[in-house]
Design brief:
Oligomer: homotetramer
Structural class of chain A: alpha/beta
Number of strands of chain A: 10
Radius of gyration of chain A: 17 Å
CATH class of chain A: Alpha Beta
Strand order of the largest sheet of chain A: 3-4-5-6-7-8-9-10
CATH topology of chain A: TIM Barrel
Distance between the termini of chain A: 28 Å
Number of helices of chain A: 11
Order of helices and strands of chain A: HHEEEHEHEHEHEHEHEHHEH
Helix content of chain A: 25-40%
Mean pLDDT of chain A: 95
CATH superfamily of chain A: Aldolase class I
Strand content of chain A: 5-15%
Number of domains of chain A: 1
Chain lengths: ~280, ~280, ~280, ~280
């Protein structure tokens, strides 16, 4: 039953499904010593605040997440906010501060792009360009990033099927950009006790359908910092090539998403829990 | 229970909820004789092909839908397609052909914008600019259209809550554009016998929360031409200020969405069914 | 695309889909003068409290809903409650009071059965036996009611596909009971501003697939008394053969579901709004 | 945000949430030597066919799953089937064969009850009585099983919230039966590439809210035998107290659910993969 569906879908995805099986794509992020590989057996931990809030915040957090075990720094500069009256991010200034944090710590940086308009800034400054859930089917943005030669991370839309998600990745690959990481971050559900339903089955399923690396974001996936560590460990057990978590030194006062942020100490503890799971998979 | 939730939401929506109740916004589309009003008791029927396919197609269809009773012409020039290998629309040439159809028939035109990049073309040529479901939370596009002084139609994202949808409209209004129509077009469901679940309760609910006109698109809402007419009539009974349907002279050969397109004859029949429902509501 | 799916499904449903199209089933409820027919052009309005609460309540409400235009009385005696600590209904005593209300007003009665254990009481006292959403796939109960010669109303499970729903009806018909009415009552959604998503497209869709009458329950379908009347009218426009609404003389003090109950005056107003829609469909 | 919701819910669940935290319930299944404990650090692997099909099948499979590492035998005797024309299970004869398999192998047995009518047979013969997803809110069945002094496993309804699920467990506990195991088995989703969405976050979430053991069924949770082993391992990493999988010696010829069944060899391999995850959690 499912084999036939898988087969039909793979035919729709000549580039994302790949010709030869068993040959996983490795995406390389950043340069020099602190270069990070994701996929094909290479695992990465990405951490940082939901939003860049100030120079001191991002620099101290960058040091803290590095010390805790992260090898990539995340930070939102342009923030997709449901309400126009919510904090919209620091914008280009936020990118500038991320670069500063990178210079200080050596951690490559990940940040979300919301419009082609800022593409040049992202190409110049950001090591892994994130396309957020709300833009997973912003096809003009996908086409623009397909022309770029920089790694792109494509989050799953919050009610996208696996087929829609992989076809959006196909936009990137067919544009010529093969450095693509997929990120599962929870789908919309009916239960208000969690923010989303983290669909971990997507990890092994996508790996059957595609050679691209798959990352999991349990912070958005659950929306609850008390569930994040356990679900991060489960995601690693499910085969995730990277984990991305939100970290804040004072979650209660974060300008966005504090309720789902870990502290640096909790991140360090999480890294210790993930280690042995990586060793046995 | 729900009153309290409504109240909290209205406070998040100072412009969309409006200060004085009972005062519905009327959106005026096009100019001169063929000007069309939507909202505050004014009803419109919008029809046309999913995609503009050729000059002869759009012009003959424009005449046909006008004769059948439509007072606005829809036609996709830039098409959001799930697969990069599907027909992507005629682009700017498609807009040019729509304008030609407008000149021939007098029908104002509706078309979907997919990127700020083409905003000038849309401002110059299109009477009602559509933001599609996949871009409902493309906040950069919302901000750009908030600065425009042209009517905008905002489709509900396919798994957006009412709150998220209205907050996206708040982006438009807070940018200064008050000529906004909301469009319910079906939400993602679990049943593969229809394309989406047309959420008609959204019509009276949004009308309790906002003064903006609400349109219904039963073509995408059901994905089945055999259900479109009945659901269009039900939508009018539910209070819709406009109905938008896909029409094709040969649905079986449409380049996109033929399975959900009416023929011009079916549209004429639908207009005859809607008439008495408008009279008694 | 959908034609093929419809065809496959019909083959799974030899009895529910029926051999000859165009031949709608008429279900007859009650006896003598106050007999009520549903289906094949016959429309009925079913109203009453969520729960039978006392003799005076059900009798005064029965008079009130009859005066307002209802021709069937609903009332819960056995109540499926999410929490064991909530009011569970008056049970057999509740059925006795419903019968009393029927004797006083002549209205046939509808009530929900929750276990085969009480089947004899229901056969003896209730005119239309309701299988609730939570029991739509209680197959032992379906088999028991398939052997009965009394009309049965089968509510859709709150996240059942059309296929699952119709196959549950097939259990009833294949057991020998052909007096079956289907009832759409809202499916589970992701928006907390309504209790459920009323899926009105199910009405015309089921009518394409089956000869059985279809009823709509906008009280559970929306969970909001302020949306019930408009959605009831829309349901009639969509082709519903009957509407079932909860009515309470003092919704604020109902033992269950007060927030979605109409007053008798609101019911009278609703009946006046439905009348002309019936005339034009 | 979520802390407050958790707190409110716990107050609705005096027995399921428990007074003292940190004190997990241990459910003991079967008697004598082959007694199996689940919860409070005790882990179990439950395996067997979807349906009991014949004496030779269930006995050879019982030996096979025991050899592969299972310590409980599952087997459906009464089968909840969507269509009345599908194989409905062997009924009481199926229970008899399960008991025979238990006598031969010593494995305690798990089987689903579909009606109170057969309760005595289940009490006498079955070691862990399963309430299936479709009966999670069959409150009469819950009340009946609350009065029983035998372990009960309560599957989550396929679109039940955590609150509804735990309140159904509260029915059992408030009836006096405290030997209850919860089982996550996938919730209804919108993607046809899997049968359900396995909601692994439910495991740590339920453990925060309740002292009851939590089991995971990745066979129904994914519907795909190729995803079952990986998701079983992820479930253990997420904290599951037991895993239940369908096993068939010839999945392609199973009378039900073959597409999601493992072979005994695959089960043995899975047990080997789970072992080290148990050791590090």
């Amino acid at each position: 039953m499912f084999e036939e569906k898988d087969g039909l879908l793979k035919r729709e995805l000549p580039l994302v499904s790949g010709k030869e099986s068993g040959c996983a794509t490795v995406v390389e992020i950043g340069e020099g010593e602190s270069r990070v590989a994701i996929g094909g057996g290479h695992f990465a931990m990405i951490a940082g605040p939901c939003s860049v809030e100030s120079e001191s915040q991002i620099i101290s957090l960058a040091h803290a997440v590095k010390a805790a075990g992260a090898n990539l720094l995340r930070g939102g500069a342009f923030k997709p906010r449901t309400s126009p009256y919510d904090f919209q991010g620091m914008g280009i200034e936020g990118l500038r501060l991320l670069v500063k944090a990178k210079e200080e710590t050596g951690l490559p940086i990940v940040s979300e792009i919301m419009s082609e308009k800022y593409l040049d800034y992202f190409i110049e400054n950001v090591d892994l360009i994130q396309i957020g859930s709300r833009n997973m089917q912003n096809f003009e943005l996908l086409k623009a990033l397909g022309r770029v030669r920089k790694p792109v991370m494509l989050k799953r839309g919050f009610s996208s099927t696996i087929r829609e998600w992989l076809l959006s990745a196909e936009y990137l690959l067919s544009g010529g950009n093969s450095q693509v990481i997929l990120c599962e971050r929870g789908i919309r559900g009916f239960d208000s006790l969690t923010r989303n339903v983290l669909d971990l089955s997507a990890v092994p399923l996508v790996k059957r359908l595609s050679h691209l690396p798959v990352m999991v974001d349990p912070s958005h996936g659950t929306g609850r910092s008390d569930l994040v560590p356990t679900m991060a460990v489960a995601a690693v057990a499910a085969g995730a090539d990277a984990i991305m978590v939100e970290v804040h030194d004072n979650p209660g006062e974060a300008l966005s998403d504090g309720f789902q942020s870990l502290t640096p100490d909790q991140l360090a503890d999480l890294c210790r829990r993930i280690e042995p799971v990586l060793n046995i998979r």
